[in-house]
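Our collaborator T.R. sent over the components below with a one-line note: 'Predict the complex.' Nothing else. No constraints on interfaces, no templates requested, no preferences about which chain binds where. So this is a plain run: every listed entity goes in together, and whatever single assembly comes back becomes the starting point for the next discussion.
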Amino acid sequence: MTTMSSGTPTTLPTWHSTPLGAALDRATGGSYHEVKRELIGRLPLDALVRDHGMTMEEAREWTRRSARVVVDAGMSATGFPVAQGGLDDPGRSCVDFEVTAMADLSLTVKGAVVFGLYGGAVNALGSERHREEFLPPLITGAHVGCYAMTEFGHGSDVASLETTITHDPETDELVVHSPTPSATKTYIGAAAEDATIAAVYGQLVVGGEGHGVHVVLVPLRDGTGSALPGVTIGDNGHKGGLLGVDNGTLTFDQVRVPRRMLLDRFGGVDADGRYVSDIDSDSKRFFTMLGTLVRGRICVATGSSAAARKALSIAVRYADRRRQFDRPDGSGEVLLLDYLAHQRKLLPAVATAYAHRTAINELVDRLQELHQLPEKDQVAQRELETRAAGLKALSTRFANDTIQVCREACGGAGYMTENGLTGLRADADVFATFEGDNTVLLQLVAKGLLTGYKEMWGDLDTRGMVAASARMVGDQVIEATSMRPLVDRLVAAAARRSPSETLLDRGWHLAMFSDRERHVLETLAARLRRAKGDAAFETFNAAQDHVLLAARTHMDRVVLEAFVSAVDACDDPETRDVLERLCTLYALSSIEAESGWFQSHNRMSATRAKAVTAQINRLCGELRPVALELVEGLGVPEAWLGSAMLVEDPARWTPGATG
Amino acid sequence: MTTMSSGTPTTLPTWHSTPLGAALDRATGGSYHEVKRELIGRLPLDALVRDHGMTMEEAREWTRRSARVVVDAGMSATGFPVAQGGLDDPGRSCVDFEVTAMADLSLTVKGAVVFGLYGGAVNALGSERHREEFLPPLITGAHVGCYAMTEFGHGSDVASLETTITHDPETDELVVHSPTPSATKTYIGAAAEDATIAAVYGQLVVGGEGHGVHVVLVPLRDGTGSALPGVTIGDNGHKGGLLGVDNGTLTFDQVRVPRRMLLDRFGGVDADGRYVSDIDSDSKRFFTMLGTLVRGRICVATGSSAAARKALSIAVRYADRRRQFDRPDGSGEVLLLDYLAHQRKLLPAVATAYAHRTAINELVDRLQELHQLPEKDQVAQRELETRAAGLKALSTRFANDTIQVCREACGGAGYMTENGLTGLRADADVFATFEGDNTVLLQLVAKGLLTGYKEMWGDLDTRGMVAASARMVGDQVIEATSMRPLVDRLVAAAARRSPSETLLDRGWHLAMFSDRERHVLETLAARLRRAKGDAAFETFNAAQDHVLLAARTHMDRVVLEAFVSAVDACDDPETRDVLERLCTLYALSSIEAESGWFQSHNRMSATRAKAVTAQINRLCGELRPVALELVEGLGVPEAWLGSAMLVEDPARWTPGATG
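Returned assembly:
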């Protein structure tokens, strides 16, 4: 491995200090890699990295000013149609989110709410005239939009929202109303201080009949910033993080807007006051509308991934310069990263960060691919939505856990705000529960799998899940597993080898992951089918841990296959050698974490289980010499880390060192 | 289990709303239970629960004012000798810490630094004259002391501190000096704004000869609050939490203090300028001094435990009133706590919180017991220090993980500062790395075990560990395991039962835990012995994960045995029945988490592993009806939870509910 640190000469992107780091970044940066490089080089960093010691008021003001920078950089328009001044590139808009997330998450989330969620709703749920009227002022910053979905009473259960949007045939207006205290919209980003207009989710009532959840645009504030008549705006106040985002509450008291304010692409009210929709079923229409959330979830995945990679970049760099305790032979103090326990904390996490990154790249590409299809492919779309939900859950869990590990790996220094980890941790925290609570999203993944994406997956409740599995046919589950020729080839090759050779064999890893997925899914399906017709809560509830496991095993397989494909696509031998080791480290770490399952299901012997642990330790040792290159390859420039301890005089941290 | 909710009539402590909750609290509150009750009833709650939305400046001012309340309540004196106005009750001082921690952690940590660490150093490392001169002004608040151990260059490795304390025979003074940038003291609680005097750790040099680390008292500020000549005070600024604690840096430029300022109980300078000590070995003296840290570590364990129990109390109460998604039969929305996945998140954690609480109670009692011995018992003292280190590591890890689970279990509401979870999480975070980094502490536990507490365990470096294991004799390890007759009896009884009966059998749980500990320790000892004489870094480092595993398995066993003893001491049948289930849930959850190990070491069959998971699910269902009682039993009064969502109008959270 000593050859690794030299590397093949390449044209360096500006910020990488090592050729190998640059090559790793290129190999795993996805199809938008050059876009990211260009953005990194162009964005004014000073305006984008926040001091996390700011008060809430200061942070909000800072975010407001920095959002202007994002708008000026043209990032507010990328996801919108060309006709409205955009690039019509949803994939690119996810990448903008990722790059901004490497700088500051308050800024990123505020932008995501205004342009991604509000703007996305106008774009995806509105008609051409909505896009023409409402997108240009949004892109220029004349409008500040917010996305008013969640209520105190209902968050995950969007179908049960209580806000009403009632058509008044007398005036041909829509009356937006919060009938109960629990109908108050809450946690609405940008509502507390800035938003001038809201995309409000509520139950559409036309001619006395309910048509389920629809979205209407409601102006919130007048030119002076005061709430318009009938609108009551509250402030959620201080939060556990994202202090720059002004989350607030909205209550509507019979607020009237013209009928044209309804985003009516999938359902609306005609001039005669009749409800009209191309989609017959209320449920299908609802889930088609919710499907537009997919981009938001992909963005959260990219943002979490960026946050985790940033934290790992800080902690690994620190561990590669910080020393503690003498070597027994008196030859000086030991670098933290030379301790096995420290390698174990950080290096498998680095490998996982690579794995997630490749899976997210695929997701972004797929989003763009499906967007460009002339005709919507419903099954492919639902598969994308399922993967987005799953990867959002996986990557936010990973980010929360990993940033915390990084904070602790830096000791007391890690707790100081100026060193960049605690702010990151606090900001990323909420990603686990917003844009879909992780537990709910994993259930949704399982449902997608059980139905082979043939059913609308949106029914998140018990009834939907049990009913879906009852309708499911025998071998449908198999279809859900891999269809990559590369994977089939590797698995087949592994089956021909002797057990003693297979520990490093990619085919064995892939087989372990997919075999586990198939077993968990098949037994889940059988279990739910046995309860056929019995839609009782208890049936589903007793299997809930099995449901969640099925989702996780599926996503683990998806991630591994994405990583394997990315490695396969790399043709520089040295870079590929490092990627192969990272991929093995990711695969074996996952197998070790699930060692109990693999043994109790006779997929792995006791001897093999112990060998896996020993091999992980060996891999940590092999990768340790290129640790700096590994974190450079994660794509977060050193200058963006915002960590005082990494730029201070080294003599402060290490006796005798000089700057 | 339906009988559980009624409970045996008892005299209720003021705050419990259920007899069972009160009984559980009493059964697991330890020997200081009445002291806690009395404190809870007496302390002015309004002054002790902080608004976590405060700025750093506001939080520091609030903490300063609230610390006055603690002093007025007599809590500053409990750990000090009667002669100086104290209760001479170190156990009680840990309990004061625990109760304060249930209210606010900034307040608790500030008090712990000033009275526990600085005051503790004066008390334990000083002579009678130091106690007479320095404790009374501390107890009254005239002095504010700080504890200046950590430097930028060295935190865990205290022996390598660079600050020097040099005796000048000309003037009979001690010269305190920071020779390098890395010698600057940092993260020193109370240093930035308040401290008037510091207990400074540094290398004592007498007559040109070094005698290792000693502690000297150095006045920091004059009457106006300005730094004294030669003292440079810095401010660590904003942190990831504990904003009320003013951590700062201290640099000394040849600062002179009289010789009498040296805390010289274990080593000092006589009037002739000669170094004198009753302890011959520098190393032994150093570790005797460090042994005084034991109380601080027990306090951190009690504080983490309190924080985790508070978070669980919030999340369980919320889950027991929050509904989301309809029941399939249309009978209304489902309470979060009725979902298996939600039970799985919270109830095993509740069981673990009980387990830790009982183990910490034992530790506090043992501290007090050993303190009262007329003659120091060195082996018992080292065993206590080992357990304190281990339990500190376990309970801080558990607190960080659990508070985060609780935050996520409350969804968006959990992220709002006013609901009490994110502030708790931010404050408790640093517990994982202060008062001894958890990884370092676990190594120390392993070393104590390997040497049967016969060696000084303080050598935290490689050399010490390898050397100790080389000297270790064959069967010493066995001694480290249990010596409780109750445990022996239960294990023996289990061995006589058939495998099918044992899943709920306490003896089987105990045997699993102790067998695992013994195996891990024996194989570690053998591994290190094979490297006898070879003190190379690589030898130790390759075994570091094994070392940490040994420490954890030992502590797991210690915790289970403490819980089993507490259950055994409970003679109310209904309370005991619930405690038995909690204890089983704790034991099985631990076995499930380590299922990979147990199977790969042939301690558990595949069938049994699956049965364990099923049994955990059953136990969650059995305990769910008494969930409120369970969290009342955790001992944190509802009024202390500081969670807005628990006191708001229920109609806000649940459609149709009324307050």
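Summary for T.R.: Chain A has three domains: 46-144, 147-283, 291-640.
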